Every structure is written in C-alpha cells, then in structure tokens.
C-alpha cells in the first residue's frame, strides 16, 4: 500500500506542479484553455498558485500526513470546479481534465486508506 501511496503522490506532484509552472510562467496552453472556458486570463496565475500550493501540500504530506490528505482533497475540489467551468463554457475537451482529476482522486483515496 505504501508503494501505491508513494507512486500516486509523486505522480500527482509532478503533474500538478508542471501545470502550476505552466500557469505561472504564462505558457500559451493555460491561456488558450482559459479563453476556451471563458475565464479571464488574469485568473491564470492565481490558479497556478493554487495548483502549486496543492503540489507542495502533497509533498508536505510526507512529513505531516494530514497536510497531504488536505492537499489531495483541495486538488480534487479544484478539478471539480474546473469541470464546472468546462461545462458552463460548453467546452467538452476533457481528456486532460480526466487525467488530472483521476490522478488527484486516486491520490486522495490512498491518503484516506
């Protein structure tokens, strides 16, 4: 079980951390997605900060387990809200969303197990 916990947590950190970096450096992909979902581009960096905080929280969970669990729950909530933004905008390109949400949900599951 520890192997699954370690693997999923590190994968979630890598995925959400890289998405956070893309948002924070102003990469074209997050801007394009913001436009598709009718979200102001001024939100891209704050959303990157949330993703980065989630990734750091998952890492902190190795030292203080409750922080990892709370970070995983926060990331699941983040991606549930992101789904709402996609649906509201009529953007049903959900491939990346499924990967990120599934990974964060699996991470939360092993944190709770």
Automatic annotation (TrEMBL):
InterPro entries listed in its UniProt record: DoxX
Cellular localization per UniProt: Membrane
Pfam families tied to this protein: DoxX_2
Bilayer-spanning residue ranges: 6-26, 47-64, 70-87, 94-112
Main location (coarse class): membrane
Any Gene Ontology CC annotation: membrane
Record key words, sorted: Membrane, Transmembrane, Transmembrane helix
Membrane topology: Multi-pass membrane protein
Name of this chain's protein: DoxX-like protein
Lineage of the species this protein comes from: Bacteria, Bacillati, Actinomycetota, Actinomycetes, Micromonosporales
């Amino acid at each position: 079980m520890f192997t699954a916990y370690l693997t999923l947590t590190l994968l979630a950190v890598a995925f959400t951390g890289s998405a956070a970096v893309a948002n924070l450096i102003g990469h074209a992909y997050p801007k394009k997605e913001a436009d598709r979902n009718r979200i102001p581009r001024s939100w891209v960096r704050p959303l990157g900060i949330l993703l980065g905080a989630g990734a750091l929280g998952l890492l902190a969970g190795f030292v203080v387990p409750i922080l990892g669990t709370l970070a995983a729950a926060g990331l699941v909530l983040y991606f549930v809200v992101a789904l709402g933004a996609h649906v509201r905008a009529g953007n049903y390109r959900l491939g990346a969303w499924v990967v990120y949400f599934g990974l964060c949900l699996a991470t939360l599951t092993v944190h709770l197990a």
